[in-house]
Design a protein that fits this description.
alpha+beta, 16 strands, binds zinc ion
Length: 319
């Protein structure tokens, strides 16, 4: 059985786009690799942050849906995003985040990792992680970042999901998607794919309430597949398992299939290619609004409703 290859991207729901850009590009120093729109709701931005080249597995993306209420945190939701940072960098990060007023927790130990919990400007829980065992990943530092190369966010480390009955999700992760159980620690069961970056920590929350989306929570977790053939293989297993995957949807920078895992968290299967440089010069990723070809005829209407965004130069100047 060919399983998935770890995380491709994570998408979350944000408040105002400018505040989102200021935090992820300005404070965390990630590169805005694509400024586009939600293809199902083109009056909303879709902002993509990653390493300099936008490698699969580096990419945290946001829909700024400012009209939504805060989420109801509960089972059936991914409740935290983990970003990998280099060994020995958490003290730097604690001081930088504190300087910009981000609410920080104390550095804690989870599994073999050192973790700095922080909350983004719109309530999303983010964990900066110095991994005990560094996962293999492609990473290109971003020269335009206000954060020095040796401290930059390496990419997505994983996510935490809450489940009412973890056994159904755990069987699905291992038997259908090809995950292995790695360890259990303090109420979390960790799953990963050998040789790939991107873990998922499962917490069982049998008495809690059902979660619901809102500003400041994860929208979906996207898992990597090599290509369309691999995607169809995994999609067929998801279908056979009794879940309801969508048809393949062309997202232009990759092909996507969506489904809810047995506990309700929205998952996606996303192909590695063609990638973010398919429609922009790699040196100028994210600088202008990019639309997939089928939305180009509506460009002027779309540009009228999107709020203008300023780049993050003030953060570079203040460091
Ligand atoms: Zn996605």
């Amino acid at each position: 059985m060919r399983g998935i290859n770890g995380l491709h991207h994570i998408t979350a729901i944000a408040g105002p786009a400018q505040e989102n850009l200021d935090f992820y590009a300005g404070v965390l120093g990630m590169r805005l690799v694509k400024k586009s729109v939600n293809q199902d709701d083109p009056g909303t931005y879709h902002l993509f942050y990653a390493d300099a080249e936008g490698h699969p597995g580096a990419d945290l993306t946001f829909f700024p849906w400012t009209e939504l209420a805060p989420p109801r945190i509960g089972h059936g939701l991914a409740v935290e995003v983990a970003l990998e940072v280099p060994a020995g960098s958490l003290t730097f990060w604690a001081s930088r985040l504190d300087k910009y007023g981000a609410p920080l927790g104390a550095i804690e130990q989870r599994f073999d990792d050192k973790v700095l919990p922080v909350v983004d400007p719109h309530g999303l829980k983010v964990a900066l992680v110095e991994p005990g065992a560094v996962p293999p990943r492609a990473f290109t530092p971003w020269d335009g970042s206000p954060v020095p190369h040796e401290r930059q966010v390496r990419g997505l480390y994983g996510a935490q999901i809450w489940e009412r009955e973890a056994q159904h999700t755990e069987a699905f992760l291992t038997k259908v998607l090809g995950f292995e159980q790695i360890a259990v620690d303090n109420g979390l069961t960790r799953y990963g794919v050998p040789g790939a970056a991107g873990i998922v920590d499962v917490r069982e929350s049998p008495d809690g309430r059902r979660g619901a989306w809102g500003v400041g929570c994860v929208h979906h977790l996207a898992w990597r597949v090599d290509d369309e053939e691999h995607q169809l293989e995994v999609r067929a297993r998801v279908d056979t398992s009794g879940l309801r995957p969508t048809p393949v949807i062309d997202r232009f920078w990759f092909k996507s299939v969506y489904f809810r895992e047995p506990g309700g968290v929205l998952f996606e299967l996303a192909t590695d290619g063609p990638g973010f440089a398919v429609d922009e010069d790699a040196a100028h990723l994210g600088e202008t609004l990019v639309l997939p070809p089928w939305l180009e005829p509506a460009r002027s209407r779309i540009e009228q409703v999107l709020p203008p965004l300023k780049s993050d130069t003030e953060f570079a100047a203040r460091d």
